[in-house]
Design a protein that fits this description.
alpha/beta; five-stranded parallel β-sheet; 21 strands; about 450 residues
Length: about 450
């Protein structure tokens, strides 16, 4: 995370955002979470597909692949939230989410928000020691997970962690193989009764994530800042209501949530998840006969493979969002505008501070990082500046995040990012960690 020291005097020129964002990007004024957006779309379009599992899900977690409409997802989230509220947790407690990509982890995230708590997604690849460190560093009072993940048993691992952390009071898991003493989330989701809509209260929403996937570096972001980060991304990604969004990224950090669950709920799109790479499942998704526009989110290192696959089998291609994480090289990008994809967007995560998304072409990210003053950023959401040595500064509602336990920066205050742009011929070729910065 960057410091709060002021940057040199250079400031970006505020220019109008090209092609103004669609009305669906309007943000709620009160503090709220993503779940409120799920509930709003469910009220208007209950039958629209919301969450879709793809790939051989039974093979790696023993659970069926699910397809949830907005209405059904909102109902299940409300039931889970009602059960979580019965736990003796203070409002605004930090609740861990230890899931791979899939519908279970996403409805759990939304239910935690709806129950008035703060979701803390944790990478599924973490081992027991990393999980223990994260629970202690973030002050997590409950964790939701699942019983099986390949040969691993996440719920059993959490039981061992709970024996070492007195403050970890509640464990819950989706089946199969839910251990004794762990709350069964499938049973909780089947409970009927009550009229609760599941919409988050003032204490819900926000995010605790981990900079550099380091369990010792929890970062806090309020709910309105998370929504602003999603809105800033959608200015570049241009995802419309009812369109398809297929992601290969796990929802365990800001990058994955902004480009996946957040982008789907803010735009009213359908989110499809492929957490374990599967050639046949990806081809089936790309060849879907529904005719709805498709947006594919993938790690940037897959660009070459995706380019070849799309050119050979799907000449019209989906729109692409290629996700980078700083530090990053920008010289290996191969897809040009109009070549093999309807639209290509680079989404660059600056730790857990911000996600900078730019469409290739005139607004390319390499040009924006080289000369932020000439770039068109969505004013008020996110803006960048650069000092004489290439060091980057950022400000805006989408950048309001800070290490847990420290104060949040003001949206209009510039603060230094721990990265600088390496320049060649007027473009940024890489984003490099500043001396001493963790990456």
């Amino acid at each position: 995370m960057g410091g709060t020291a002021p940057l040199p005097a250079r400031r970006p020129v505020i220019a109008p955002v090209p092609d103004a964002a669609p009305p669906s990007l309007g943000l709620p004024t009160r503090r709220t979470g993503l779940n409120a957006l799920l509930a709003a779309t469910a009220a208007r379009h209950p039958g629209r597909p919301a969450l879709i599992d793809r790939g051989d899900k039974p093979g790696w977690c023993g659970r069926p692949a699910m397809t949830w409409s907005y209405g059904a997802a909102a109902e299940i989230v409300a039931r889970l939230a009602r059960g979580i509220r019965r736990w003796r947790l203070p409002p605004g407690s930090r609740v861990g989410l230890w899931f791979p990509g899939g519908s279970e982890g996403l409805v759990a995230h939304l239910a935690v928000e709806a129950a008035g708590h703060v979701p803390c997604p944790m990478p599924a690849a973490w081992d027991e020691a990393q999980l223990l460190a994260a629970v202690e560093a973030a002050g997590i009072g409950a964790v939701l997970t699942q019983g099986r993940l390949g040969a691993r048993r996440p719920a059993e691992t959490l039981c061992r962690v709970a024996l070492q952390v007195f403050s970890l009071r509640y464990l819950a898991a989706f089946g199969p193989d839910v251990p004794d003493g762990v709350i069964n989330l499938d049973a909780l989701a089947l409970e009927r009764g009550g009229t609760d809509t599941g919409v988050a209260g003032e204490g819900g929403g926000g995010l605790i994530s981990f900079a550099g996937r380091d369990p010792a570096r929890p970062v806090h972001r309020p709910g309105d800042a998370l929504l602003a980060a999603v809105a800033a991304h959608l200015v570049a990604a241009r995802i419309g209501p009812g369109e398809r969004l297929l992601t290969l990224l796990p929802p365990d950090d800001l990058r994955g949530l902004v480009t996946g669950l957040g982008a789907a709920l803010v735009s009213g799109a359908s989110l499809e998840m492929l957490p374990v790479f599967d050639d046949a499942a990806l081809d089936a998704a790309l060849a879907d006969p529904s005719g709805r526009p498709l947006h594919l989110v993938a790690p940037a290192f897959l660009e070459g493979a995706l380019r070849d696959r799309i050119r050979e089998r799907f000449p019209e291609g989906p729109a692409l969002v290629l996700a980078h994480r700083a530090p990053a090289r920008l010289t290996g990008r191969r897809l040009t505008p109009g070549e093999g994809a309807a639209r290509t967007v680079d989404a660059l995560a600056l730790d857990e501070d911000a996600v900078v998304s730019r469409a290739r072409g005139a607004d390319d990210i390499a040009l924006a990082l080289a000369d932020p003053e000439a770039a068109r950023f969505p004013a008020g959401l996110i803006e960048l500046c650069r000092d004489g040595e290439g060091g980057l500064g950022l400000r805006g509602q989408a950048c309001r995040a800070a290490p847990l336990g420290t104060g949040l920066p003001e949206p209009g205050a510039w603060r230094a990012a721990p990265y600088r742009a390496a320049l060649f011929a007027g473009t940024a070729t890489a984003l490099i960690a500043q001396g001493g910065a963790k990456s």
